[in-house]
Amino acid sequence: MSARETLTRLETWAKSPGGKRAINIIRALLFIAVIAFLIYRISLIGWGRVWAERPRTIWFYVVGLGIYFYLPAFESIIYHRLFGASPRVLLPALIQKRVLNMDLFDYSGEVFFVAWARRRKLSDRVLGLTKDNLIMSSAASNIGAVVMLTVLVSAGFVSVDDLTGGRSGWVIVGGTFILIIAMGAILTLRKAIFTSDLPTLGFLFGTHTARFVTISALQVLQWWVVLPDTPFTVWATVLAVYTVAHRLPLIPAKDLVSATLVVSIGGTLDASTAAIASMLVVRAAMEKAVGAGVYLLAGLADTRDPTDGPTHPDAPVSTDRPAKSGTTAASPQSGGQDPDPRDTRS
């Protein structure tokens, strides 16, 4: 059996009712295992110590909220450029998208967002543009992670041996090889993979790179306001673990996985393990609570009529209602006609 046939069978099985149930069971077991191991590691430290070391400065929570809402606010600007829609209209759906990706499973947020944007007729290339943004976001984050880890290791802030169990050479060589192959494939197949033109792809990559750098800085700031006397080498190591954990595909509750990994290596850090554990657990719990609340509020706020979307050069124009004052029913280039039905890029 060829590799293509194997992948086709696996994809068919994953879409079947039995396959979906099996995948959900596996994800639930992984989530339970993560929680159980985190409880075990904290029990070794002592729940009383962890509670006593909980963050008390208000700035920890202020910065945490800023980190939480930074991504949807940032993406509202990106999709304003791609779809022409108002950031105010996009923000509730992008908040829901973030919650689904973080608390359900990877890319479930993109599935929701594509369906939402199509109902509002924001563009006739919703799927293609969303895919381009997702690929550029992943590429910028992965390359940024590699560069960041390289700088931290080269500067002596992070010991790869401590993180990889003495297999640093194989990890570096293997990771570099995979990155080169992936980037080569993307460049070679760019026209077949992407919907957007090169300037738009450059804009997406550059803005997502800036987002990665900003989020990393805010993350260190959130930890620093709690333990300002802790050496930077500790925060560099914790940031490295967080970054690697959040790059793992198909793993549920990445914030809890990150906390578990950091607590596991806490004994090698030059800082209070109880304080770090408490800080990470509080951060994970806060994200879950905020996620549940804002998902409901965003759903209530997203009451805009699906047919009342903004006009965009690529968007099919609705003829079910008269055009608003100050807008036109169709662009001059289209001659007032519907988009070409042969265009199936979305």
Report on this structure.
- The protein is 71% helix and 0% strand.
- The chain is mostly helical and 346 residues long.
- The chain has a domain at 88-305.
- Helix 6 (108-119) packs antiparallel against helix 7 (126-154) and helix 13 (254-264) packs antiparallel against helix 14.
- The relative contact order is 0.14.
- Residues 305-346 have low confidence and may be disordered.
Characteristics:
346 residues, single chain, mainly alpha
Question: What's a concise summary of this model?
Answer:
With 346 residues, the protein is mainly alpha-helical. It has helices at residues 3-15, 17-45, 47-52, 58-83, 87-103, 108-119, 126-154, 160-164, 168-188, 190-193, 198-224, 232-246, 254-264, 273-301.
Shape: globular
Distance between the termini: 33 Å
Average pLDDT level: 75
Biggest β-sheet: count, sense, barrel? none
Quickly count the helices: 14
Bin the strand percentage: under 5%
What is the N-to-C succession of helices and strands? HHHHHHHHHHHHHH
Q: How much helix is in the residues?
A: over 70%
Number of strands: 0
Low-pLDDT runs: 305-346
Based on helices, strands and strand pairing, what is the structural class? mainly alpha
What is the fold's blueprint, element by element?
Elements lengths: L2 H13 L1 H29 L1 H6 L5 H26 L3 H17 L4 H12 L6 H29 L5 H5 L3 H21 L1 H4 L4 H27 L7 H15 L7 H11 L8 H29 L45
Helix pairs in contact: 1-2, 2-13, 4-5, 4-7, 4-11, 4-14, 5-6, 5-14, 6-7, 7-11, 7-12, 12-13, 13-14
